[in-house]
Design goal:
- The protein is α/β, with parallel strands linked by helices.
- It has 2 domains: 33 residues, no CATH class; 145 residues, von Willebrand factor, type A domain (Rossmann fold, 3-Layer(aba) Sandwich).
- It has a 4-stranded mixed sheet, sandwiched between helices. It has a two-stranded antiparallel ribbon with strand order 5-6.
- Strand 2 and strand 3 form a beta hairpin.
- The protein starts with 7 loop residues before the first helix and ends with a strand.
Length: 180
């Protein structure tokens, strides 16, 4: 996995320049600061029209405003007939308002539900987070995949990085399923 650039400058002055020491210093900073790596995806398929998209949009922006800090890294994905990365995993920092605007503008209704494609895009983004980081994938959707381009069980189970880090849950049905 690639290491985060957020700690590079602050680690460089204090940590020896050996790869293992730099990695340990990054892990210490991640643990001490509480910095998070978050990938959020919102369903913009036709079934989300009306109240559902308005509620999803409001909740996505609320999570961003109340729980994402400037030191955090975030990626944002929307999925309708296809999964679209609005912005890749990056430091929020000074781009806070610009990223929020991109999120807000991208949540408009389009097509079917490419849920599994979005899951893979989320997995690809979150896999860039350092091992020691607090990593979260948030997916706001109302339904099942209706336009799959990938087979979730085969693709994710063959990718050890994704399979170890993804967990599916549906609070309404009281079930959680970890992928192999």
């Amino acid at each position: 996995m690639t290491q985060s650039n957020v700690c590079a400058a602050s680690c460089a002055a204090r940590a020896p320049r050996t790869p293992s020491a730099a990695g340990e210093a990054r892990a210490d900073i991640v643990a001490l600061t509480g910095l998070k790596y978050v990938v959020m995806a919102v369903d913009i398929s036709g079934s989300m029209s009306g109240t559902r998209i308005n509620t999803a949009k409001m909740n996505a922006l609320k999570v961003y405003d109340e729980h994402i800090n400037d030191i955090d890294h975030m990626a944002f994905i929307v999925f309708g007939s296809e999964s679209k990365e609005v912005f890749p995993l990056q430091l929020v920092g000074e781009r806070r308002q610009a990223l929020r605007t991109e999120m807000d503008n991208s949540m408009t209704i389009k097509g079917a539900t490419a849920f599994y494609d979005a899951v893979m895009d989320c997995a690809n983004n979150i896999s860039k987070a350092p091992e020691a980081a607090k990593s979260y994938v948030i997916m706001l959707t109302d339904g099942e995949d209706t336009r799959v381009r990938v087979r979730l069980t085969n693709d994710v189970s063959n990718d050890a990085t994704c399979g170890e880090r993804l967990r599916f849950g549906d609070r309404r049905r009281s079930r959680n399923k970890s992928l192999p």
